[in-house]
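During the no-cost extension, the postdoctoral fellow (Dr. R.K.) reprocessed legacy sequence entries with the updated structure-token encoder. One reprocessed record is reproduced below for audit purposes.
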Amino acid sequence: MTERVFITGANRGIGLGFVRQYLNAGWKVYATARKPEESEELHSLQDKFEENLKILRLDISSAESVEAVGRTAERLEDGIELLINNAGAYGSKDSFENLSPEQLNEIFDVNCVGSFRLTQRLFPLIRDVKGDVVFITSLMGSIDDNRSGGAYPYRISKAALNMLGKTLSEDFKTEGVYTLLLHPGWVKTRMGGENAKIDVETSVTGMRKVISQMDLEMSGKFYAYDGEMRLW
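Re-encoded structure tokens follow.
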């Protein structure tokens, strides 16, 4: 049976990289984006993988959008073997003195609450087949690693996302539903910039390898794309 993966933020960068690689590996892929019509790359892949690629509109910051995509997912298949919560935003770079609570809340809603909202809605489809949940986080969400400060919305929201993934792993570890927190590295994307150290292919290839090794011992832990465990 063809395995199924649901990927958020799939219109570009790391998300699109996951779409390409899982399609090439023979998976059925549900690729979501806020404005999928603007992604020529996604639609080019659909021309090639018509049977295995479903493109869905999704705004994870909208409860209505999440509910709509949840109903669609229920009709499409019996279950989801893998959910990759990749969609996210960097947010304001304003200093502590100038950052507004509204700016913080906006990014927190996307990076943490949005992933909670979608995972909760799709969880019955994951649980039924003992699927896995992946959260694409960042070393910038690590309290231990923070030596430079700044980037308040991004750091705070990713630290909260890490706690979401860890807590989920504890609650469902006896049911065969595993959870993984992944740092993709500093990647050459729109968010990472051209000065980043690795390309999307390297990052996604590494993360897919880690995902393929996921088991009870790894569940709820924080790994980088290179397979090394990271500190919270």
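Residues 101 and 117 are 21 Å apart (CA to CA). The domain at 4-224 is CATH 3.40.50.720 (Rossmann fold). The remaining legacy entries will be reprocessed before the final report is submitted.
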